[in-house]
Amino acid sequence: MCDAAVFRFRLEERSLNGDNTYPNELEDQGLPEEQTIREAPANGEPAAEADMTQEETTEMQLQQAVARAEEYLDSLQRERAAFQNYKKRVERERADQGRVITGNVLLKFLPVLDDFYRAMELVPEDEQDQWFEGMALILRKLEQILQDEGVSEIKALGEPFDPNLHEAVGMDDSTQADSGTVTQVMQRGYLLGDRVLRPALVRVAQ
After folding, report:
1. 88-147 pLDDT, tens per residue?
2. Most exposed among 73, 102, 188, 191, judged by the fewest C-beta atoms under 10 Å?
3. Predicted confidence band at 40 (pLDDT cuts at 50, 70, 90)?
């Protein structure tokens, strides 16, 4: 009997016996499961990479070492330049601070020097005795001390008025001096190096 006839016979037999369950004939007959056939992709041969020779490896390492050395040298040069700039700035600030301190100390001596000049100018020529000569000697020593510290007197009398060096305290009508010329020095002015320690107090021709 063929498989189809056997299958119908079993169905009729189960129906007569009151069994309505559907037999899994596929499992009884052991039919094979469906398999998906996949086409395997064609595998190409991978490109073979040539091994680096010892010479190429050494050359690459040498190039890397040279690059690192150049980087270190550049960094060192930048650090050295920064340190030199810092050193110069510190020295300049220290020198400026020293000049300020020196200027403040010397500025306190200037009124004493002014008093010496006034006292010497008030002594008549016929009364310039040994006492006067002693005072003049002390005055010259004071002037020498100031010169040694870099202090110099500002030129004023007969010079054109310079607001950077002179301070006008009055105007004079003068036919002998050009307008704007210093005609009288009321108080001497001084420079400390190229910095004004004290401006000269002057009168100026109109």
Report:
1. 999 888 888 888 888 888 889 899 999 989 888 888 877 778 888 888 899 999 999 999
2. 73
3. very low
Span 133-154, pLDDT tens digits: 888 899 999 999 999 989 999 9
How many CA atoms does the CB half-sphere of 92 hold within 13 Å?
A: 6
- Yes or no: say if 135 and 119 are a contact pair by the CB < 8 Å rule: yes
> Into how many domains does the chain fold?
2
CB-based contact 182:156 (threshold 8 Å): yes
Q: How many residues would you count in the chain? A: 206
Rounded distance between C-alpha atoms, residue 70 and residue 47, angstroms:
37
CA–CA separation, 166 vs 187, rounded Å? 10
* Residues β-bridged to residue 198: 190
Residues 133 and 157 in one domain: no
Q: How far apart are CA 51 and CA 10, in angstroms?
A: 73
Domain hosting 117: range is 72-149
Query: DSSP characters for the chain?
Result: --HHHHHHHHHHHHHHTT--PPP-HHHHTTPPPP----PPPPPPPPPPPPPPPHHHHHHHHHHHHHHHHHHHHHHHHHHHHHHHHHHHHHHHHHHHHHHHHHHHHHHHHHHHHHHHHHHHHHS-GGG--HHHHHHHHHHHHHHHHHHHTTEEEPP-TTSBP-TTTEEEEEEE--SSS-TTBEEEEEE--EEETTEEEEPEEEEEE-
- pTM across the whole model: 0.56
